[in-house]
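Lecture 7 notes: from sequence to structure.
We start with the chain below.
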Amino acid sequence: MADTEVKQEIAHVEGGDGRDSDQEASYEFTPAEEKRIKRRIDRRLVTTCGVMYCISLIDRTNLSSAAIAGMNEDLALVGDRYSILVLLFFITYTLLQPPATIMLRRVGPRPFLAGICFSWGVVMLGHGFVNVWWAMAPLRVLLGAFEAGFFPSCLYLISTWFSRYELHRRYSFFYLIGVLASGFSGVLAYGLMQMDGLSNYRGWRWIFIIEGIITMIIACAGYFTIVDFPDRSVEKSWRFLSERECQWVIRKIAADRGDADIDKFDFRKWAASGLDPKVWGFALIFCFVTTTSYAVAYFLPIILRGMGFSVAASQLLVAPPYVMACIMMMIVSWFGDKYKTKAPILITCSTLTIVGLVLMGFTTSIGSRYFGVFMVAAAANTNLPTIMAYQANNIRGQWKRAFCSATLVGFGGIGGIAGSLVFRTQDSPLYRPGIYATITCNSLVIIIVALLSVHFRRCNKKADQGLMIIEGLEGFRYTI
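Predicted structure tokens for the same chain:
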């Protein structure tokens, strides 16, 4: 599509004439047909990525379930050894994020995503056979290395198939599958613990063995269901969509943000995306949000145990807060896409997270502390797909999108490192230092979002007056 045509269509989309990108791209399909196309993309792309991501979340966070199922005693995880094992995962997970989205383009989504998923399944299986704590250290490093490419690659791939105001719901559904499965991972772990003694293996070993096998099976299935980029789908004439339907998707993306066509990879152009300050603002927000979400994911069974619940109750009570998170996530994503807003959601959820943290750390009633867990799990996890969509709504260009997906999730890895350290065993049962740290993180989210909102509003005003062109495309406006 010519650049002038793209500019004209973007101007229609953002210029206030009442039309959106779907309408601009609707040359040959009825609204009902367009919905059917989107549903097929949702089923094949979003659902597949979501199922694979859910097993990723379970595999990286099942350490806490194994810890209270006997692993700490068998491997002598005294002092800071447990936190070290949690931390080691995030070192490679963070460092290997940047090249992931480049590899995705070069290798292709099907072999790349299915291949790394199968690989970390093998590593997870190996967790069940270690006999000394330090032998698990290299396995955690390998697990982080293989999982590093998955999340940013999924964000990037999904963003190439949907227009800006379709992404929040898709990211939420993608992440919701993972969160829901993660919430019920305690139930799964409790069930696997009942295999204690089978073949002379302790219950915690069966958690790793069975979940590793499940991961490898899902990876094999995913190889046959993952879809390629829309421009490659046209070239390969996949049965997933016809060439005519793929062309409609490409035109829709071009009408929305003018970056449907992929440029030849240029390292300088890719790296130059890092000169945009807002890219690092998005990354910092994601870092601070993930600090809270990972801290809860890794330590919630242990925290509940410290509240006085039994081992079984601590495993089972993990699930309800995550069910609440899923409900809140879908409601908020619908609101965010319909009203084309993200910043107020981020600020509201961060505020709710702070309130929940205060209840967890500064009240004595078990009921109020558990209610605080509900608030923290729901609000913090709702903010994750919101910041993904916030970033995706405010950038343009395929390689910039690839760079930003990697930096976003890379900083999420840094948040994971922080989250693995904030709740320390010696701070039980109130974990005050961890509470202070996560309250600070959410306060910083509010500040950064407020600063970005002021900047975006000023830029939009200048663009309306014809004084600047945002993101190199006339008619483009920032989402606030």
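Points to note: Confidence is low (pLDDT under 50) at residues 1-26. The two ends are 28 Å apart (CA to CA).
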